[in-house]
Amino acid sequence: MTTGRATTLTRSGHLDSFCRDNLPAVSAWPELLFDLPELQYPERLNCAVELLDTVVERLGPDRPCLLTPHGAPWSYGQLRAVVDGIAHVLVSEAGIASGNRVLLRGPNNPWLAACWLAVLKAGCVAVTTMPLLRTGELSTVADIAQVDLALCDARFAADLDAADLRGAPVLRFGDGSDLSEHVAAHRDPFVAADTAADDVALLAFTSGTTGRPKATMHFHRDVLAMADTFARHVVRPTADDVFTGTPPLGFTFGLGGLLVFPLRAGAATLLLESVTPNGLADAISEHAATICVTAPTAYRAMLASGSARRLRTLRRAVSAGEHLPKATWEAFYEATGVRLIDGIGATEMLHVFIAAADDDIVAGSTGRAVPGYRATILDDVGDPVAPGTPGRLAVKGPTGCRYLNDARQSVYVQGGWNITGDTFVQDADGYFHYLARNDDMIVSSGYNIAGPEVEEALAAHPAVLESCVVGIPDEVRGQLVTAFVVPTDTGAGDDVLVAELQAFVKQRIAPYKYPRAIRFVSSLPRTSTGKLQRFVLRESAITDGR
Fold first, then answer.
1. Alpha helices in 69-109 (DSSP H)
2. Is the Cβ–Cβ distance between 224 and 256 less than 8 Å?
3. 3-state secondary structure string, 294-334?
4. Are 406 and 348 within 8 A, CB to CB?
5. Is the pLDDT of residue 5 over 90?
6. Which of 291, 293, 233 is nearest to 267 (CA)?
7. 281 with 310: CB under 8 angstroms?
8. DSSP of 11-53, one letter per residue?
9. Pick from 109, 155, 390, 524: CA 20 to 30 A from residue 433's CA?
10. Over 90: is that where the pLDDT of 207 sits?
11. What's the rounded Cα separation, in Å, for the pair 117 and 225?
12. Cα–Cα distance measured from residue 442 to residue 477, given in angstroms and rounded to the nearest whole number
């Protein structure tokens, strides 16, 4: 497999050509890189076989695989038996053909993981949704993906039953469900579909903070590539590790960190359906988890609740989904001795492409390009900028943006690069420093102010649990730097604390960047993937000011 722009696709193993038919033109893809030996995948590839069957053959069927807070763990052999049973049901009973799209709905648990693997092993395309999505959102996903079948946790069926699935049937899974009874009737191994490495394995939807969500198309080889780059070279798991964390499997951050990475390493993963930061700390302690995957807010909350002592078994902690403030990194390291691995990824790229670990970490920076990827900073016309100059983050590697039948492909892919929509600065040593989303820069009194930089300054104050800083239209300054603050003490929040926080920020960053308005809130609006919805706060502030 060569480096560069793809020119042709190999012979598909899909009977249903929907995904191939709706791929963007190959000329509109980003440049793809396969420089590392481990990224040289064979032409025929089924990633479910590599993640499960190959591990069983290498390490044996009795190795613990999927753990839960309650109940016996699933071994690799048990998981394979359930996966094969589900695949048999999909093909021989439900009449599903390779290339059909199967919507998955449910919380993080062994049945959802087994369904995801079975869909891929049968040669179908997984469309895993967030359990928080409601009827209208599910209808939109079903319409864009043109789903043929849905597999749903029986406890989460109400919204799906009310959604418009275009006539697609729904099979319920979980203990005592219809699917589990049908699976038990199939004892024979399932022969995996003969899929191509460049057959679509999953449709992952962007979080859709504004506008119609986009479906990103990822191949079987892409699923392995995210493990063979970030996991292999930065996280570096072993078969003895126990993963756990909070992101849903419908979010590619969670899919990689809580299922693909542990399976690729032959490790175990503790799947948690719904958990608070305190509950996460308890689970880590009780199950001796060694690798945690969650967002910066959860790490900060665990520290604030005094949970550091329950994190002693951790040897790795991965942070992504939003910017990691330097103050949070330093506080976590001081309390636990664990160096948080910060990372930035994108649904379009499938997982993390910039990160650092161990002695390579520079606190406050996101890191450097993950092995297998290249990254640079471009100006508005697509030319590289000098070190220290803010610009648009551009990335290329073994994965890349391919939207399903969406004109926005030409916005994300430019000149062979994936343009992530983030403003970064790269220093002389190659480290990338996050400033803001491209459309979230605040221009106040002629100054360019990055909201996350102000948030990072606020995060160092003990009274601040988390914050979001946005620009509000202002006749005098153009935009008014406004902070929405969730205090650590739910009863706090008065003019005295406002003045204290403003003075605190002025001492840590340039005084012109301080928040001239501070509003105390009980929580911040987030998408189902946990990302801040800055536009919600911006719009509410504008409405309140009228």
1. 76-88
2. no
3. ECHHHHHHHHHCCCHHHHCCCCEEEECCCCCCHHHHHHHHH
4. no
5. no
6. 291
7. yes
8. ----SS-HHHHHSPPGGGSPPB---SGGG---SB--HHIIIII
9. 524
10. no
11. 16
12. 11
Find tokens 């360019």 and name the residue.
448
Residue-wise pLDDT for 370-382, tens only, equals 999 999 999 999 9
What order of strands is seen across the sheet that includes strand 464-474?
464-474, 478-487, 517-520
Edge-to-edge strand order for the sheet containing 242-245?
74-75, 64-67, 268-270, 242-245, 291-294, 316-319, 341-345, 352-355, 368-369
Contact between residue 97 and residue 15 where contact means Cβ atoms under 8 Å apart: yes
Three-state secondary-structure class, residue 482: strand
Give alpha helix (H) positions in 54-148. 54-59, 76-88, 110-121, 135-145
Residue 261, SS3? helix
Residue 464's alpha-carbon distances to 59, 162, 322, 460, in angstroms, are 47, 40, 17, 8
Residue type, 220: H
Instruction: Indicate if the pLDDT at residue 383 is higher than 90.
Output: yes
pLDDT in tens, 431-461: 999 987 776 778 787 666 878 888 988 999 9
CA distances in angstroms from 139 to 134, 201, 320, listed in the order given: 9, 21, 28
Kind of pairing between the strands at 170-173 and 149-153: parallel
CB contact set of 211 (below 8 Å; sequence gap of 6+): none
Crossing angle (nearest 10°) for helices 451-459 and 495-508: 110
Residue 402: what pLDDT? 98
Round to whole Å and give the CA distance between 414 and 329.
33
Nearest alpha carbon to residue 418 among 404, 435, 398: 398
Total length of the chain: 546
